[in-house]
Each structure stands twice: as C-alpha cells, then as structure tokens.
Amino acid sequence: MMMNCRKRGGQVSVELLIVLGVVMILVLPSLFSVYFRINRANEQLSVNQADMAAKRIASSISLVGAASGSSLISQVIMPSNVKNVSIGNNEVVITLATQNGVTSIVKSAEYNATVPQESLGRMIRPGTYMLEIYSNETGVFGRLVN
Questions:
Q1: SS (HEC) of the chain
Q2: Which domain holds residue 19?
Q3: Model confidence pTM above 0.90
Q4: Is 90 exposed, middle or buried (0-12, 13-18, 19+ CB in 10 A)?
Q5: Chain-wide mean pLDDT for the chain?
Q6: Nearest to 100 by CA among 35, 17, 40, 32
Q7: What angle do CA 140, 141, 145 make, to 5 degrees?
Q8: Which of 39, 45, 100, 133 shows the greatest Cβ crowding within 10 Å of its Cβ?
Q9: What's the average model confidence in pLDDT over 27-35?
Q10: Nearest alpha-carbon partner for 106 in 46, 55, 42
C-alpha cells in the first residue's frame, strides 16, 4: 500500500513538470516578442525626441537671427542614446546610436550660430536643457542656461 502512494506522488510531480514545460514553451516566445517591440518603441521615441530637439534649436536660431539683439530660451529634451550634438554651418546635427548603427538628425537653420563646445558636450547626457539663443551685431550665439 505504501509503495503505491509513492508512485502516485512521483507521477503527479512529473505531470506538473510537463505542464509547466508546455506553458513555458507557449509563453516565452510571446515575452520575447513584447521585449523586442518595447525596445523598438523606445528607440523610435529617442529618434523622435532628437528630431524635435533639432527642429526646436534650428527654428530658434532662425527666429533670433532675423532680429539683432533678440534672445530666446528653448527647452530641449535629449534622449539617452545621443552620441554627439553639433551646431554650425547653418545646421543642427544630433547623432544617435541605434540598433541599426549611427543615425544623424540634421535640421537647417537660416543663420549660422556659435555654441560653446562645453554646452554641446553637456547636452549628450539625457535630460531637459534650457538653451538660450541670442543675437547681436556680430552673429547668433547660444549657451546652456541651466
């Protein structure tokens, strides 16, 4: 009688393991799919944030450059995968690291602007920045406010 009880307990354990294995086989591909979709969505969000930042900076340069002595503070959000920010030659360029390699977002400005490398170097880190764009009789300039 005791022997039959032990066989029964072993059988239940094996059946439970088989059921758990089948569940894992069915669930794991779905989890991987969700994981990769979230990564793609996060990357697209980063590209969109960089595009919006480049547009905002370029339009600020164009607005301020049109009137000497004017000034404008733009709030710019930088994503986490920014590798380089450059402003010059009538362009704003934000370079990102993506799954497909390096991607550059380039936006044109009507005027050339000079922004210190120190300010641009700080903008590589993710976060929100206040960038002051100002002009005088010698040109258009920029600097980080915060």
A1: CHHHHHHHHHHHHHHHHHHHHHHHHHHHHHHHHHHHHHHHHHHHHHHHHHHHHHHHHHHHHHHHHCCCCCEEEEEEEECCCEEEEEEECCEEEEEEEECCEEEEEEEECCCCEECCHHHHHHCCCCEEEEEEEEEECCEEEEEECC
A2: 2-144
A3: no
A4: middle
A5: 91
A6: 40
A7: 140
A8: 133
A9: 90
A10: 55
